[in-house]
């Protein structure tokens, strides 16, 4: 049976943070942005998560991950679709993200490569854009992408 896709809960912040860190991603502002997080719950064990940060008409997709055994099963697609639908429901019209290893995963949702300069001003308010723009080694390994919602 497929894991349950549901909103994240406050008491799961530590577990979500551990999932994100286990994939080598930064787990910044999880608690502060929890309203935009969803998890995959497999009988009480979190096996995936994704979040979206809202900045008016702009959104930033973040922390998309599923456990190794779920890769290729469509569970990551479910997570991303839920986040993007939430962003649309909240009025976002464009979405941005950074990826290091999953560039080929995101075009199915309309994402394409862009540059840091392509991020609209509202999306630059987030910790991700600031962190990448101020760190040359990160700029060399992270791929910025954007999509119209």
How would you describe the overall organization of this protein?
This protein has helices at 13-22, 75-89, 127-133, 136-141; strands at 4-7, 37-42, 45-55, 58-66, 94-99, 112-113, 143-148. Helix 2 (75-89) links the parallel strand 4 and strand 5 (94-99). It has one domain (4-148): Aminopeptidase (3-Layer(aba) Sandwich). The N and C termini lie far apart (30 Å). By secondary structure, the protein is an alpha+beta fold.
- Can you identify the CATH class? Alpha Beta
CATH superfamily: Gcn5-related N-acetyltransferase (GNAT)
CATH topology: Aminopeptidase
The helix/strand class is alpha+beta
Report the uncertain regions.
none
Architecture, according to CATH? 3-Layer(aba) Sandwich
SSE topology:
Blueprint: E1 4-7, H1 13-22, E2 37-42, E3 45-55, E4 58-66, H2 75-89, E5 94-99, E6 112-113, H3 127-133, H4 136-141, E7 143-148
Parallel strand pairs: 4-5
Antiparallel strand pairs: 1-2, 2-3, 3-4, 5-7, 6-7
Brief description of this entry?
The chain is of the alpha+beta class and 149 residues long. The chain has helices spanning 13-22, 75-89, 127-133, 136-141; strands spanning 4-7, 37-42, 45-55, 58-66, 94-99, 112-113, 143-148.
